[in-house]
Amino acid sequence: MSSDATNSTLEMDQGVTMGQSLDHPGQSFTVELMGEKSRFSLRLRESNVAAFAKATGLALPTKINTVYRDDDALIMCLAPDEWLIIAAPEVGATLQEKCKRHTASPFSLVDVSHRNVAFHIGGEGAAQLINVGCPLDLDLATFPVGKCTRTIFERAEIVLFRETETIFHIEIWRSFAPYFLSVLSNGGQAQ
Amino acid sequence: MNNFRRVGRGRVNQNAPVEFTFDGATYQGYEGDTLASALLANGVHLVGRSFKYHRPRGILAAGSDEANALVAFDRGPGRVTPNVRATTLELFDGLTAQSQNNWPSLKFDVTSLNDVFSAFFPAGFYNKTFMWPKSFWDKVYEPVIRATAGLGPAPKAEDPDKYEACYAHCETLIVGAGPAGVAAALAAAKQAGRVILVDEQAEPGGSLLSTPEAMIDGLPAADWLARSLDELEKAENVTLMPRTTAIGYYHDNFLGLAERLTDHLKDGEADGPRERLYRVWAKKIILATGAIERPLVFAGNDRPGVMLASAAQTFLNRYGVAVGERIALVTSHDSGYQAAFDLADANSQIVSIIDCRPQVDENLQAEAEKRGIEVRVGWTVTATAGRHRVSSVTTNKVNGDQVDPKGETLSCDAVIMSGGWTPSVHLWSHSKGSLKWREDLAAYVPDQANENAVCVGACNGDFGLGVALETGANAGGGNDSFEVVEPAPWTGDGALEILPTHRDESRVKAFVDFQNDVTAKDIRLAVREGFKSIEHIKRYTTTGMATDQGKTSNLNGLQIASRALNRPVTQVGLTTFRPPYTPTTFGALAGNNGGAAFDVVRKTSIDGWAEENGAVFEPVALWRRARYFPQKGEDMHKAVARECKATRESLGIFDASTLGKIEVVGPDAAEFMNRMYTNPWTKLGVGRCRYGLMLGEDGYIMDDGVIGRLAEDRFHVTTTTGGAPRVLAHMEDYLQTEWPDLDVWLTSITEQWAVIALNGPNARKLIEPFVEGVDLSPDAFPHMAVRECKVCGVDARLFRVSFSGELGFEINVPAHYGRALWEMLYEAGKQYDITPYGTEVMHVLRAEKGFIIVGQDTDGTVTPYDAGMSWAIGKKKTDFVGMRSLARPDIVAEGRKQLVGLKTSDPKTVLEEGAQIVMTPDQPIPMDMVGHVTSSYWSETLGCSVALALVANGHALKGETIYVPMPDKMIKAEIVETIFYDKQGERLNVI
């Protein structure tokens, strides 16, 4: 089965086409379903991070709520012992191999590629739109570019990452995505 | 019409007439009017009937403190809002509203006989009268009371409007855009940080809108306001929100703001949501919520045309409406005078100022004299007259403690009253800020803050324009001073709530709470009957319990109670203000959760196929799952029978994706599993599976599932669909708090994998061609084995497991591939008559095998032994969660309810799940119930019903007869083993 099949399933499930935006007249935002990604949940003790990073070459950010980004991957530090690694599908296998180079101390690497789907919310009204369901203060002073966090959106859990001043990346468990879009669509009417 | 309109006065646009309908009659008002001001301009004072006595009522106030003038605001089907205060309803062209609480019409209300017979309806009447006979309550009293009581009618049609909600943050939130709030916002705007200024009214400005003579910094109040608002509009860090009510102040400076977006627009202009709920966190909160004028309590003070003096002043100065042509002022407070002066200056006649105080400020008297107004110092009011509108007021001289019984009756068409001011401490009290009593104001004012909040202006008991502006500016972080000229400055001194009378007070109806029809004598009666705390008096008389939460009545009620008890007010207690500040629509509270967003409905990646193929769904936790797939003409019974038969005979396909899944990884994974589950895990080989049973600390079954060992340090755990979140939380709880030393990590993978279960003798034949790299022969891949492999070219985890008793496989593929794989298998399975089945068949098949469903056959009080599953407990294990509890005396005692099978003596009879079980059929009711049916189905395979039940001491009762009493019959059944089908388990081994 091909990744085309995956993307079309993504679209069918979530009720939006990739690149499409929610239809509100005069809106100041776009909501896009992102394409297929490789995702891993990495867990290891704080004390072993340096050794792990050295052995694998993965630059794990050690400050909670921060990310490391390069062309290959986006690594979010969600807890002192937890990282969410997101990469293009073709890079996933390489990442897994890299992690296996580390044998000195225990860690857990679990493939969660299909557990989540991701949305890009962009535009001048993006932060305000996210505040429809997310209680965090998204002012640039308190939620600067490069910050990530696990949080809630109404009754669903999300991971929120600010890519630029006006673009946010949201990860959400796949079966919660239609609910997420429904709330966004109800709450974004007058923006 | 508009006879009471004063040309050149007020802020309404007298060039923009607007038509509206009230109780079927058409009137004209102006843009900027409220329904109340427009009705008054037309001389309409009678707008409603009261709650209990159905007395004619008019307009009491000019703002959200209105207690009487509640109307039904009608925008068509589903858009009728009951109990809207006419004083806050903005007029628009085509507005339609109706009066409430009257039948058959406002002017002739049959139930107003309640008023004539009111001696029979004292406080506590319902409690006293309708106690007996008990059986009358449901059938007679309650329905009749319900039909005649209550405020407006609840709407029945679905609300077509949209609502939304959002979160917001700011450094400074200011509630109330009167002089204090505006001054605070101007100062805060100059600091760094976001400022939100909210006001419940359409136009910000508060008292500045109705005091045109006041001057600030050399400008008339209205011009200063316009300049200030313009400055705030231009400030980038300020958000100005009119038509927004701060409804509640919660912990940590969190406030709810309800913004009304379309109610003021005429039909067709309203686009987008009707209301929006803001949930705001503010670093600092400035409450500038002002004060509410207090009515005076005297006989007939509720007649239409009797209203607050400040309301009359607002109607005149803001809306250009005189509330009458011949007006009497009844006052116990200086502030009432200015209203009278303004009305006199606008060509209304002030027939008299009746001041019940023994002395009055000379300047005020001089001002009155200048206008030719008579002032009666030391007079009281003992009656009013007029059927649908006040026509006269009777005033008597007070000599010391004595009221001269000879009164004078003054003809008038309106009475305005002023009993002092009550600071609006509602929000402050929500935040648990403390209050102190100020004798001079006869009011509670804010004392100690509980949050980072401050009260400024009148809500802090600081009356006067100058002090409001200055304290507001200070609170906003500025130190501006203002040059203020006020026409008649007054202090808060000298409030008196109840007017003396020579009449028998127990026969006089002097209203305290207008909305709940509570009179002064009701409060005195409550005290006579032994109630000493205001909390009890409130509940007995219902004073302060209406939709206005006693905005105009609380302090009057408190002082009357204090006097009757002969105790200081501070010893009578104070009731608690609770959100919302004013009635709030359910729509605003529902916010974004309309339609599809009402709740999370989780769907698997295969759900779409099920929907397209006619599945009937059922909710399981947050998921929706296909229950069965009826074909043309089939009911549930027939569909389920067909699906069962097809699966047992050939091949069934089932979407098991919702099963909870947790990946347990780390060198201590097996040790962790040993501690969490009753079963032993150390010796489970890689590539093998085991059924796992999880107990709570109490020893009762909490969850179960098949668990596969993928590697020495990696387990693929499955849980029940509904149990997934609590099992993960339970595991994390132990891992983080009890065993932080273990090197093991837990990751939810429920949504990573789509799971397709194939059951039936042809299951292996179907999947064999699709599976790469696994020898599926029975010896190489036996029952309870697991392999990581490729299926149709994608990574898969293949389990050989069975929840049906048939040869079974569960293919896990990454979720996005679920549907594609399902479709491929379905196509290829047609040669075996592959049959999709749903949760109902899954339940039947497992019940035929006696497999339990946690939460159905267990109820949180069932141990492994009770469930006949002692085999799942590792005999050599020294500990696991719940192990110690299994040795508790009650757990090992005889006679516990145990899981058994039931076979009805008539094989066609299917028992009802939940039905009770008795040992003998001819007992007197109540019978001795020994247990209940937990699962019950028709078994097409066996041609009889099958059932599981929890029965006291059930394991020892095999072969005994029990009875299941039903409303129409007694069903006889035999206690049997829990396994009904293929007791040897041979069907798992089909080659």
Describe the structure in your own words:
- The complex is a heterodimer of chains A (191) and B (991).
- Chain A is 25% helix and 30% strand.
- Chain A has helices spanning 3-14, 49-56, 89-100, 126-130, 177-187; strands spanning 30-33, 38-43, 67-69, 73-79, 82-87, 108-111, 116-122, 148-153, 156-162, 167-173.
- Among the domains of chain B are: 1-154, 2Fe-2S iron-sulphur cluster binding domain, sarcosine oxidase, alpha subunit, N-terminal domain (Ubiquitin-like (UB roll), Roll), CATH 3.10.20; 161-294 and 420-494 and 583-599, FAD/NAD(P)-binding domain, CATH 3.50.50.60; 324-416, FAD/NAD(P)-binding domain (3-Layer(bba) Sandwich); 504-565, Orthogonal Bundle (Arc Repressor Mutant, subunit A), CATH 1.10.10; 894-991, Aminomethyltransferase beta-barrel domains (Elongation Factor Tu (Ef-tu), domain 3).
- Chain B contains 23 helices and 52 strands.
- In chain B, the strands form 13 sheets. In chain B, strands 8, 9, 12, 13, 14, 15 and 29 form a seven-stranded mixed β-sheet that branches.
- Chains A and B meet through helix 1, strand 6 and helix 5 of A and strand 8, strand 15, strand 40 and helix 21 of B.
Produce a short descriptive summary.
Chain A is an alpha+beta fold and 191 residues long. Helices cover 25% and strands 30% of the residues of chain A.
Count of discrete alpha- or pi-helical segments spanning 4 or more residues of chain B: 23
| CATH fourth-tier homologous superfamily of the largest domain in chain A | Probable tRNA modification gtpase trme, domain 1
Q: Do you know the CATH topology of the domain at 161-294 and 420-494 and 583-599 in chain B?
A: FAD/NAD(P)-binding domain
Biggest beta sheet summary of chain B = 7 strands, mixed
Q: What share of residues are in beta strands of chain A?
A: 25-35%
What proportion of the residues of chain B form beta strands (DSSP E)? 25-35%
CATH first level of the domain at 161-294 and 420-494 and 583-599 in chain B: which class?
Answer: Alpha Beta
